[in-house]
Write a structure and sequence with these properties.
Pfam families: ECH_1 (PF00378). By secondary structure, the chain is an alpha/beta fold. It folds into two domains: about 210 residues, 2-enoyl-CoA Hydratase, Chain A, domain 1 (Alpha-Beta Complex); about 45 residues, Lyase 2-enoyl-coa Hydratase, Chain  A, domain 2 (Orthogonal Bundle). The protein contains eleven helices and nine strands. A hairpin with a 4-residue loop joins strand 1 and strand 2. Helix 4 crosses helix 5 and helix 5 runs antiparallel to helix 6. The protein is globular and about 75 Å long. The protein starts with 14 loop residues before the first strand and ends in a 10-residue tail after the last helix. About 40% of the residues are buried.
């Protein structure tokens, strides 16, 4: 079910990482005894992993899943209680100075999750069981999301007295495209079933169980990995840019980007293989 590890550089304490010969990486959040709750170490390792993927030509597509009985219980609240989030304001402490360093902590957390989006290799999230709080931040930074029938989603931050601050409020409206639904989900912290998630477009596919969901994700990853890595990286990069800019800005940027990308040997190889009705084999990025 998971690609075999082909390199020792992807070894972490809270992540299991495998890379197949075809260039499919499988990242498994591996903290099942804590219901995959995100500790500081978890999100830092996730950021380190996807930062490395970006410059690793052997990786063409990534599948992100989680071990145990759920995707994630969200933020590790026990750890958070001893960190900046849980410390009450102390008498005599300058609020501006405390806030300055708290802001830096939040920015570091945001950047770690944003590496998923910034990695030019497409990322497919496989969600099973509950996906709570920061889980929404993580999957909304992914390119494709599939879920199991028993999966459900909750933007839980309002239930712990805060607004989601790691990407959900910025990305979810663009993922779903229904402002009313997003506001309802974020303001009520209600449970969203996989069936509803499919209906609103949060996920693209719902499978009976985790095995089927993983098989589906790996099949999609294999298809993507078989394409020109220049074309795939360019497509993801330009989709992200165009999402955040006007149509005209997106067109102009695409023209500048493709002025270079069109010089790839992949285009000629793809056209020739298509004419000969043969499967093209592209070199790594």
């Amino acid at each position: 079910m998971s690609p075999e590890i082909s390199t020792s550089k992807y070894q972490f304490d809270l992540l299991k990482v495998g890379v197949s010969a075809e260039g499919i990486a499988h990242v498994e959040i591996n903290r099942p005894e804590a219901l995959n709750a995100f500790s500081t170490q978890t999100w830092r390792e996730l950021g380190q992993c996807f930062t490395r993927f970006k410059s690793d030509g052997n990786v063409r597509c990534v599948v992100l899943s989680a071990a145990g009985r759920m995707f994630t219980a969200g933020l590790d609240l026990k750890e958070a209680q001893s960190g900046p989030l849980g410390k009450p304001h102390e008498e005599g402490v300058d609020v501006a100075r405390k806030g300055y360093y708290h802001r830096l902590h939040i920015l570091e957390f945001q950047e770690a999750i944003s590496t998923i989006e910034k990695c030019d290799k497409p990322v497919i999230a496989v969600v099973h069981g509950p996906c709570l709080g920061i889980g929404i931040d993580v999957i909304s930074a992914c390119d494709i999301r599939v879920a199991t029938e028993d999966a459900y989603f909750m933007v839980k931050e309002v239930d712990i007295g805060m607004a989601a601050d790691i990407g959900t409020l910025q990305r979810l409206p663009k993922v779903v495209g229904n402002d009313s639904w997003v506001r309802e989900a974020c303001l009520t912290a209600r449970k969203v079933t996989s069936k509803e998630a499919l209906f609103v477009g949060l996920v693209s596919r719902v499978l009976p169980g985790k095995r089927e969901a993983m098989e589906s994700a790996l099949e999609t990853a294999a298809t993507i990995a078989s394409k020109s890595p220049v074309a795939v990286a360019s497509t993801k990069h330009l989709l992200n840019y165009s999402r955040d800019h006007t149509v005209q800005e997106g067109l102009e940027y695409t023209a500048a980007w493709n002025a270079l990308a069109h010089n790839s040997h992949d285009m000629a190889l793809a056209v020739l293989s298509s004419l000969k009705k043969q499967k093209a084999r592209f070199p790594n990025l």
